[in-house]
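INFO  loader      accepted 1 record
INFO  loader      residues=124
INFO  predictor   begin
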Amino acid sequence: MWKLHNGKLTQTTDVSRIRYKTRMSAAILSNLKQLADKHNTHIGYLLENGYSNLIKSGSIAYNKKNRPKDRIEFRTTCDQELLLSLKDFAKMHSLNLNDVIEASVAYINYEDIKRANWRYRVEI
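INFO  predictor   done
INFO  writer      dumping tokens
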């Protein structure tokens, strides 16, 4: 992101975002890549939107016996507070974080996602 300081733009990193890695279904990941291209955004922004909507809903229905067998490692970034809230949500519902991340895909609101150029925003 860019910050306006004394009339000059300075490029900075967003300290509220952290990197994390997870394991998720390759099929879901492939679908997310197509959706990200279609909606001019990144996979991380799609997931972040799903996380916040899932936490707002307050409930989750997940069957541990139907876990996908094609999980692969995936690395991205997320807002630190949102990720901590998601971890607490998973713990409260006795689920693994990976399970909650995969379930959050169903909660993505495509009308309210950050666009790909969000990382180049200017803050005052």
